[in-house]
């Protein structure tokens, strides 16, 4: 398909550290965190003006799902905006707790595992044509995803067990996957989830839901993660012969690969061959290079994706991690941990190093170690602050998120009850006039404008400074004000 | 934006007024200069990390417990 819709859902870890006393439990902290959200939308599960979704999910994890994007940089910007939105909520929660006599610090971590091994996810969504052969997902896509951790993992210090000493692994999520392909999520955690809610025309599209990925702090890592996955999907969709890498046991393979940084761990394919993660990634990368050479680049970051993908595979194959240690999360963090360990004389089991591992994922822009490394030139960025700031308030400009953002912001300005989800737009008093927008690529819909026009009155759009000046979190700021008193609304259709 | 290499004195408190922002203190001559600079950068990084992390590492790590998600 020429254009693809992407989205990513991030569950954040949440902790409160009390000053001089016990901190709040995560579920209590989550209630403080979402207080401004509930005040704004009367719910802890809302769509916000930038078209994204903000909610408390299973286990009281604060979660942010990006609006649908059709551009990799828009996707990364929207995901990063989610971090800034959570940080804003975290600062407000900290202040509210302090005012209630509970001083302390709120920590929001964009990682996937706590100190006891509980895991939470980073889920990617890719819109694919319904005609895509399911068989090719298991012969090509699944092996790609099982081995993708070597190019996009977030890295992790695995604590010592009876069988193995503490060691560094590629992935945070690898040990928490239980099935290859399935339709369940919390119960069995499959790598590819096929629950079929395309949020689009189901006769044409399928939504591929991938839950194996680690949350990334690094924008460059995100670029290769989403960009390489998109390229593999494009080759599958084009019917490109890609070989058969189907693994005999994807779940044991993903764990085995994660725990061997040499990249030499071999896993068995269904055909009985023994292959390494480097073999699988290098083969698909080579196919992707040829595919792009033949068909041309379909966006202006393709070269960058191929270059970083290639260097990541080479870094693992040769053991020269300096090829990627400013661009790929696992390598950026490993360099930090290795250097601190060597300079301070610490072994990998030391609590200080575990703390550094966690603190790398702290989204606080001053306190978080990833951000500290960026300031010191030890990690790279892709997007500037102004772009991230815009993504807090503005939907991506080329998808249906524009329609959703406009509808919900306008309905709020008119002061009328409304509900929206990925597809539906409804005014509570006019349920029969609800509008379904099934095409994720439309950016305007005359039915929505007709519906809003029935509310009478005129709206004035506020500028960025006026939105910043509002007392609510910027992400929840009102986009419009009504300039005329309400005209008597047209009676609803009955 | 946000990528100025910081050059802070290592473990010792010393002020070098007039030192150019990026040049820093004169590095020892010879092949050691680079590795010396690297050690200083690392020590300055360690200082900065110490200044942002909570001091009780074990308590911090053990206290970070979540319920499972998806």
Provide key terms for this protein.
heterodimer, A: 494 residues, alpha+beta, eight-stranded mixed beta sheet, three-stranded antiparallel beta sheet, 19 strands, 39% helix, globular, B: mainly alpha
Question: Could you describe the 3D structure shown?
Answer:
The complex is a heterodimer of chains A (494) and B (70). Chain A is α+β, with helices and mostly antiparallel strands and 494 residues long. Among the domains of chain A are: 131-192 and 213-360, no CATH class; 393-482, no CATH class. Chain A contains 16 helices and 19 strands. Chain A has helices at 26-33, 35-41, 72-99, 134-147, 149-152, 219-237, 250-258, 277-295, 302-318, 329-344, 351-359, 369-375, 385-393, 401-414, 446-453, 464-468, and strands at 6-11, 13-18, 45-47, 53-57, 61-65, 104-109, 122-129, 156-158, 167-169, 179-182, 190-193, 205-210, 266-268, 274-276, 418-420, 424-427, 435-436, 459-461, 480-482. An eight-stranded mixed beta sheet of chain A has the order 3-4-5-1-7-12-11-10. In chain A, strand 8 (156-158) and strand 9 form a beta hairpin. In chain A, helix 4 runs antiparallel to helix 6, helix 6 (219-237) crosses helix 8 (277-295) and helix 8 runs antiparallel to helix 9 (302-318). The longest helix of chain A is centred in the first third of the chain and has 28 residues, at 72-99. Chain A is globular and about 75 Å long. The two termini of chain A are 41 Å apart. Chain B has 70 residues and is mainly α. Helices cover 40% and strands 0% of the residues of chain B. Chain B is built from two helices and no strands. Chain B has helices spanning 32-52, 57-63. The longest helix of chain B has 21 residues, at 32-52. At the A-B interface, strand 2, strand 6, helix 10, helix 11 and helix 12 of A face helix 1 and helix 2 of B.
């Amino acid at each position: 398909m020429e254009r693809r819709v992407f989205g990513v859902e991030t569950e954040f870890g949440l902790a409160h550290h009390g000053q001089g006393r016990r901190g709040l439990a995560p579920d209590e902290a989550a209630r403080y965190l979402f207080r401004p959200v509930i005040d704004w939308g009367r719910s802890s599960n809302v769509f916000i003006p930038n078209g994204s979704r903000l909610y408390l999910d299973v286990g009281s994890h604060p979660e942010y799902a990006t609006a649908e994007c059709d551009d990799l940089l828009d996707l990364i910007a929207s995901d990063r905006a989610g971090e800034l939105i959570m940080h804003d909520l975290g600062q407000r929660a900290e202040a509210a707790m302090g005012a209630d006599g509970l001083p302390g610090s709120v920590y929001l971590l964009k990682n996937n595992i706590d100190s006891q091994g509980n895991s939470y996810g980073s889920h990617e969504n890719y819109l694919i044509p319904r005609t895509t052969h399911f068989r090719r997902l298991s012969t090509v896509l699944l092996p790609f995803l099982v081995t993708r951790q070597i190019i996009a993992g977030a890295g992790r210090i695995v604590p010592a067990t009876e069988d193995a000493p503490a060691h560094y692994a590629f992935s945070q999520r690898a040990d928490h996957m239980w099935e290859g392909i399935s339709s369940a999520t919390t119960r069995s955690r499959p790598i590819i989830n096929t629950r079929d809610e395309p949020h689009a025309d189901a006769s044409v599209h399928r939504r591929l839901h991938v839950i194996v990925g680690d949350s990334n702090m690094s924008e460059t890592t995100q670029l290769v993660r989403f960009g390489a996955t998109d390229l593999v999907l494009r080759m599958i969709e084009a019917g490109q012969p890609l070989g058969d890498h189907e693994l005999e046991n994807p779940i044991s393979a993903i764990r085995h690969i994660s725990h061997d940084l040499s990249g030499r761990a071999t896993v068995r394919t269904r055909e009985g061959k023994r292959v390494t993660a480097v073999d699988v990634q290098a083969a698909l990368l080579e196919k992707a290079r040829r595919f792009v050479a033949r068909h041309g680049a379909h966006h202006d970051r393709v070269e960058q994706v191929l270059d970083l993908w290639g260097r990541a595979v080479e870094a693992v194959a040769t053991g020269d991690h300096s090829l990627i240690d400013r661009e790929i999360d696992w390598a950026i963090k490993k360099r930090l941990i290795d250097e601190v360990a060597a300079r301070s004389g610490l072994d990998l089991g030391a609590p200080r190093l575990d703390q550094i591992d966690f603190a790398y994922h702290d989204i606080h822009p001053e306190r978080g170690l990833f951000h500290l490394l960026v300031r010191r030139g030890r990690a790279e960025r892709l997007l500037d602050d102004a772009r991230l700031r815009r993504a807090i308030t503005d939907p991506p400009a080329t998808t249906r998120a524009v329609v959703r953002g406009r509808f919900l912001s306008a309905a709020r300005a008119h002061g009328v009850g409304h509900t929206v989800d990925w597809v539906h737009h409804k005014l509570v008093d006019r349920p029969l006039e609800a509008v379904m927008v099934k095409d994720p690529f439309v950016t305007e819909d005359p039915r929505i404008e007709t519906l809003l026009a029935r509310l009478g009155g005129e709206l004035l759009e506020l500028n960025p400074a006026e939105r910043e000046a509002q007392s609510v979190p910027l992400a929840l700021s009102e986009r419009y004000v009504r300039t005329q008193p309400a005209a008597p609304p047209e009676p609803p259709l009955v | 934006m946000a990528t100025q290499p910081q050059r802070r004195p290592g473990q010792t408190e010393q002020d070098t007024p007039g030192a150019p922002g990026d040049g820093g203190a004169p590095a020892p001559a010879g092949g050691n200069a680079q590795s010396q600079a690297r050690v200083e950068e690392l020590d300055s990084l360690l200082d900065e990390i110490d200044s942002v992390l909570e001091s009780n590492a074990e308590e911090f790590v053990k206290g970070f417990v979540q319920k499972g998600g998806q």
